[in-house]
Write a structure and sequence with these properties.
The complex is a heterodimer of chains A (768) and B (117). Chain A is mainly alpha-helical and 768 residues long. Chain A folds into five domains: 263 residues, no CATH class; 241 residues, no CATH class; 37 residues; 149 residues, Four Helix Bundle (Hemerythrin (Met), subunit A); 59 residues, no CATH class. Chain A is built from 32 helices and four strands. Chain B has a single domain, classed as Helix Hairpins (Orthogonal Bundle). The longest helix of chain B has 32 residues. Chain B is built from three helices and no strands. By secondary structure, chain B is mainly alpha-helical. Classes of the chains: A mainly alpha (768), B mainly alpha (117). At the A-B interface, helix 25, helix 26, helix 27, helix 28 and helix 29 of A face helix 1, helix 2 and helix 3 of B. Chain A: It is a multi-pass membrane protein. Chain A: This is Multisubunit sodium/proton antiporter MrpA subunit. Chain A: One of its GO terms (molecular function) is antiporter activity.
Chain lengths: 768, 117
């Protein structure tokens, strides 16, 4: 199984290597990857009956409990089949749809990477691995949605999708780590054997909230749904793949996966039911107002996802059965509708349903596929849609609480979805041929065969439910419910309330389809409320955050050196100052203080005067001379307090500095004052504060008894080991000789810098 | 005496920072030098002051027989003075060069990197 999961990645990574040879000669080879995988999963189907499952263990990072273990049970089987099956159709379809596109090979690389990530998500038994694959689907879908990277709206949608799903993923990671910490394992199989550990833990509530955020962002649940319509900017094959069977269903998969582990508690059930119900009705009503085919499909997809969340939330056996059926139903008809939309777009150049009609004369096979898909979404008998709709109505009708209200909502949603399905699959093909449709030609078989295949499956499963009920749907139900369920699917359940509701749905939906026409005016009417939509709120928030970041950056990173210095100093002063003023007591030991002699006092006086002179002097020459005086007074201090070497060095260096200053001085401009008085006062306050802080710090440290261990070592060994009597010199050239050598190198570099700056001629025409 | 030195250290730091915050490059270098002096003095003071006993072993003796000034801070300061000189001379030449090319001493006029030289 590990090969099956990684095949897509290997293929994607290798694309640059073999695209020249393979791609030119055998362009269909790309489609071989999903087809082979599909055959592989079908061949495993007999092993997954009842509640059996296959598990494959591969060690990866055992120290952290992360491994590449894969678990193939009913649920992951259903998803794997959809991912590889619809993937195969999409791969074939793309070979014609994007024929001649410059980056077709790149597109296939993204697509196979995405497919592999999706397989990873549904097959992983380890939570951390699942998370990694989950994020990989976000990343590869980012590239797919933004495939038309020259369009700004495309890039923006890709970024929105990545932002929303990636953010949700991070929340999910927190939940996963939490789960791992509580249950002591990252393995789903082990968790399923001891569900009560998590359910009884105090963090249960927070864990499910975090998981919900991850699932809702991925599966476009209200209020995170808005990335999905935007993602329709992607080329149609991408929309087909991402939105019918894979990406958006990953959230559903996650919820279904965790149902046996975390489900069946009031928090779990009610949150999912409410969010699902809101999403399904909100999006279903929205879909009625769209005139762009892809928008209609986008909103009806959101609504379908809402239904799935809602059904998982109900949690009864009937509801889970309906969910399992609907996952398959929806994948089949929605993929077909998307592919058909792509064909219409490809052939007529428009997706506006108001301009499309009568295409059946031009493309009969596509029209047939469209009719089947539309009727399956409508839930007509003998189609898979009928079975799932009956199951849904059965499930809501049998609920112990609020059955009436919830059934009403489901019926309402189904009516809207029926209308949306008819608009997308029926309207473009029937009626008189419209202007936009006249130029359309019969598409290549590579485009329409996939749509017909999907339609046939809907039909076959609808007429002979026995094909899937024991082999596929029952294992799915078992793995979602976590116990052995027993069910059978039949077309005819006898006359009951569910059948009545079905008929009601059909009648009302057909009436609505005939009398309700979406129009630009109606779109405008609901766009007035757009400012309240979550999408708009997120945009406002995003813009606000960006503005804040800009202000923040331009405040701190303003390009003025002194402002950086001020920021650093203030931060330092406040941090250190706070510590100093809260708790440290200054204690002065007068015995340690030596007395002041007259000569010392004179030097101190000289120094203080010079400092003030340097700061306030208007004349540069005077300032430099005063600087020299400061240096020489410093030198005298060194001399007083037993540091003859320092005094000598300071003396020569100071002389040199003053000389250097004087040499370049005549080249410098006049001493100007640039800053205004308030700024100078501000700077003065800051610097005085900092000076005071340093003085207090010095006092504090001075009072501490010093440790002279290192000094004593040097002093004791200066003569014995290094044969030198001047300890300072011995330290510099012997004990720390290497440091001094490197220091000399620094000086040499500085000298080279000075030299080259003096002789550097930036303007060759003008000689210095 | 130590208290006076501490006062001077604080003053050197304050004036150094104040000059560092000026817009004129010339004043900035002065600030740098003042700050360097202040730091040297700080290190020196923290090594404890000792009068009349330089860390030089007397002729004939192999080790110190009486008290001596701490040699370690002195070695540090010596290094600091020399390195400081390297920095100062480079900075002085640099502002000279900047002024020659751009005809300004004002740091705020150096914000843009796009100007033609």
């Amino acid at each position: 199984m590990i090969l099956a999961v990684l095949l897509g990645f290997i293929f994607a990574i290798g694309t640059p290597l073999w695209r020249r040879i393979l791609f030119k000669t055998f362009p269909y080879l790309y489609s071989a990857v999903p087809v082979l995988l599909f055959i592989y999963f079908v061949s495993k189907l007999p092993e997954i009956n009842g509640s059996n499952f296959l598990i494959e263990t591969n060690s990866w990072i055992p120290q952290l409990g992360i491994d590449l273990n894969f678990r193939l049970d009913g649920l992951s089987m259903l998803f794997s089949l959809m991912i590889t099956g619809i993937g195969s159709l999409v791969f074939i379809y793309t070979s014609y749809y994007l024929k001649g596109h410059n980056y077709l090979d790149r597109f296939y690389a993204y697509l196979s990477m995405f497919m592999a990530s999706m397989l990873g998500v549904v097959l992983s038994d380890n939570l951390i691995t699942l998370f990694i694959f989950w994020e990989l689907t976000s990343i590869s879908s980012f590239f797919l949605i933004g495939f038309n990277n020259e369009e700004e709206s495309s890039r923006k949608s890709a970024l929105t999708a990545l932002g929303i799903t990636g953010l949700g993923g991070l929340f999910m990671l927190v939940a996963f780590i939490w789960i791992g910490a509580i249950s002591g394992t990252y393995s789903l199989t082990e968790m399923m054997s001891q569900p009560e550990v998590l359910k009884n833990s105090s963090a249960y509530f927070w864990i499910i909230i975090l998981i919900f955020i991850g699932a809702f962002t991925k599966s476009a649940q209200f209020p995170f749904h808005f990335w999905l319509p935007g993602a329709m900017k992607a080329p149609t094959p991408v929309s087909t793949y991402l939105h019918s069977a894979t990406m958006v269903k990953a959230g559903i998969f996650l919820l279904a996966r965790f149902t046996p582990i975390l489900g069946d508690s009031p928090e779990w059930n009610w949150t999912l039911t409410i969010i699902g119900a809101v999403t399904m009705t909100y999006a279903a009503v929205h879909s009625l107002f769209r005139t762009d085919l892809k928008s209609i499909l986008a909103y009806s997809t959101i609504s379908a996802l809402g239904i799935l969340v809602f059904l998982i939330g109900l949690g009864t056996e009937g509801a889970l059965l309906a969910a399992a059926l609907f996952i398959l139903t929806h994948a089949l008809y929605k993929a077909a509708l998307f592919l058909i939309t792509g064909i219409i777009d490809h052939e007529t150049g428009t997706r506006e349903i108001l301009q499309l009609s009568g295409l059946k004369t031009k493309m009969m096979p596509v029209a047939i596929a469209g009719y089947i898909a539309a009727l399956s979404s409508a839930g007509l008998p003998f189609l898979l849609g009928f079975l799932s709709k009956e199951a849904m109505y059965d499930a809501t009708l049998q609920l112990p609480t609020a059955a009436g209200l919830l059934t009403f909502l489901v019926v309402l949603t189904k009516i809207c979805l029926l209308v949306a399905g008819l608009w997308a699959g029926f309207k473009p093909f029937s009626g008189k041929i419209s202007e936009a449709s006249i130029s359309a030609k019969m598409p290549s078989p590579k485009l329409w065969i996939p749509t017909i295949l999907l339609g046939c499956l809907s039909l076959a499963f609808g007429i002979f439910p026995g094909l899937i009920d024991k082999t596929l749907i029952l294992p799915v139900l078992n793995s979602i419910a976590g116990y052995e369920a027993d069910t059978y699917l039949a077309i005819w359940h006898g006359f009951n309330l569910a059948l009545g509701l079905s008929i009601l749905t059909l009648v009302l939906g057909t009436l609505l389809f005939i009398y309700w026409k979406p129009s630009p005016g109606k779109i405008k009417a609901i766009e007035r409320y757009a400012s309240l939509s979550p999408e708009n709120l997120v945009n406002v928030l995003g813009k606000g955050f960006q503005a804040f970041a800009e202000k923040w950056t331009s405040f701190f990173q303003n390009g003025y050196l002194r402002n950086y210095v001020i920021t650093i100093l203030l931060f330092l002063s406040i941090m250190v100052g706070y510590r100093l003023f809260s708790g440290v007591v200054i204690y002065l030991d007068w015995n340690q203080i030596s007395e002041i002699t007259t000569s010392e006092f004179v030097v101190v006086f000289l120094m203080v005067t010079s400092i003030f002179f340097v700061v306030f002097s208007k004349s540069r020459t005077a300032a430099i001379v005063a600087l020299g005086v400061i240096g020489f007074s410093n030198c005298l201090f060194f001399l007083y307090y037993s540091a003859p070497d320092l005094a000598m060095t300071q003396f020569s260096i100071d002389t040199l500095t003053v000389l250097l200053f004087m040499l370049v001085l005549f080249k410098l401009p006049l001493n100007k004052t640039f800053s205004s008085v308030p700024i100078r006062i501000r700077d003065a306050v800051i610097s005085l504060f900092f000076g005071a802080l340093i003085a207090i710090l010095a006092l504090e440290v001075f009072e501490e008894s010093s440790i002279r261990e290192v000094s004593d070592y040097y002093a004791d060994n200066a003569y014995i080991l290094a044969k030198g009597r001047n300890v300072v010199n011995v330290i510099l050239v012997d004990f720390r000789g290497f440091d001094t050598m490197v220091e000399t190198a620094v000086l040499v570099i500085a000298a080279i810098g000075v030299f080259s700056l003096m002789y550097l001629n930036l303007n060759p025409e003008k000689k210095d | 005496m130590e208290l006076l030195l501490i006062f001077i250290i604080g003053l050197l730091h304050a004036s150094g920072i104040y000059m560092l915050l000026r817009r004129s490059m010339f004043k900035m270098i002065i600030g740098l030098i003042l700050l360097g002096n202040g730091v040297n003095m700080l290190i020196f003071l923290l090594g404890k002051l000792t009068k009349g006993h330089p860390p030089v072993i007397e002729d004939g003796a192999k080790i110190f027989t009486e008290i001596y000034a701490d040699p370690l801070p002195q070695a540090l300061i010596l290094t600091a003075i020399v390195i400081g000189f390297g920095l100062q001379s480079f900075a002085i030449i640099l502002i000279k060069r900047v002024y020659q090319v751009l005809k300004t001493d004002d740091l705020d006029e150096l914000n843009s990197t796009d100007e033609e030289i």
